[in-house]
UniProtKB/TrEMBL annotation:
Name this polypeptide is given: HTH-type transcriptional regulator LutR
Gene3D superfamilies reported in the protein's UniProt record: GntR ligand-binding domain-like, Winged helix-like DNA-binding domain superfamily/Winged helix DNA-binding domain
PANTHER family xrefs: TRANSCRIPTIONAL REGULATOR, GNTR FAMILY, UXU OPERON TRANSCRIPTIONAL REGULATOR
Biased composition (Pro residues): 10-20
Domain of life: Bacteria
Location of region: Disordered: 1-25
GO molecular function: DNA binding; DNA-binding transcription factor activity
Domain HTH gntR-type: 26-94
CDD domains according to UniProt: WHTH_GntR
A Pfam family reported for this protein in Swiss-Prot or TrEMBL: GntR
UniProt keywords, alphabetically: DNA-binding, Transcription, Transcription regulation
Length: 257
């Protein structure tokens, strides 16, 4: 009996597995960032605590040292951690969600005095930078604002012109954060917008406004000639005088009380 030979079926070829696409550094770093962000927000890592070393993070996440350093840079930019060179990286305390200054909280002469202290530290540096960086167009606008201050002395529009003058100086620094802070304060940066400084200090209104205008003029002329040190000194003189006038007024009110 003849047997028909069974057909031989060739074995199926073994397919090599397709290699998974290699993740980019950015994706890997983002994964590390998300992991630490969740850990910090959950309170597992608390403010002041130290992050694991780079080597430990590399082992935990299976990433390179470059990826770890990129991730830490992102965490620093987000305000979650701070690196102290030679010591390590530490978790920062959460910052308030809103650091803006509300003009609604500025109600008393004491509040205005506190704002003037802030402005002395802030605007003296702004004047220095403005004198160094201002453009011809910006200094021209300052001159126009100064003219409006002088022509509207004692009138409601003088406060707006005064605010505009100080904002122009802030804008001339080229640093938007100066503008942001002064814009938050609005008209409260001008003491006479809140209180009658001349009346409280028992000063002649005309003489009071003349002194204020002269102080503004000194600031403007220093910025005009690009004398940074003189601009800083003129701004400090102007704001310190404003603070002193209000301080004397407050003392008078307290004495009367």
């Amino acid at each position: 009996m003849n047997h028909t030979a069974a057909a031989t079926i060739p074995p199926s070829p073994v397919l090599a597995p397709t290699p998974a696409p290699r993740k980019k550094h950015r994706n890997l770093a983002q994964g590390v960032v998300e992991s630490f962000t969740q850990t910090i927000q959950a309170g597992t890592l608390k403010p002041g605590e130290k992050l694991p070393t780079e080597s430990v993070i590399m082992e935990m996440h299976g990433v390179s040292r470059t990826v770890v350093r990129e991730a830490i840079s992102h965490l620093q930019a987000a305000g979650l951690v701070q690196t102290r060179h030679g010591i390590g990286t530490f978790v920062l305390a959460p910052q308030p969600a809103n650091l803006r200054i509300s003009s609604d909280t500025i109600r008393t002469i004491g509040d205005v005095l506190s704002i003037l202290e802030l402005r002395i530290s802030l605007e003296t540096e702004a004047a220095w930078l403005a004198a160094s960086r201002r453009s011809e167009e910006q200094v021209q606008q300052m001159g126009e604002a100064l003219a409006r201050i002088q022509s509207s002395a004692g009138l409601p529009g003088s406060v707006e012109a005064d605010v505009h003058f100080h904002l122009l100086i802030a804008q001339s620094t080229g640093n938007r954060y100066f503008v942001d802070i002064l814009s938050d304060l609005g008209n409260t940066i001008i003491p006479r917008a809140r209180v009658n400084s001349a009346q409280l200090a028992h000063s002649d209104p005309a003489a009071y406004l003349e002194r204020v205008n002269r102080e503004h003029d000194d600031i403007y002329r220093a910025i005009l000639r690009q004398d940074a040190e003189a601009a800083r000194a003129a701004m400090r003189t102007h704001l310190s005088n404003s603070r002193e006038r209000l301080r004397r007024a407050q003392e008078g009110i307290e004495a009367d009380a």
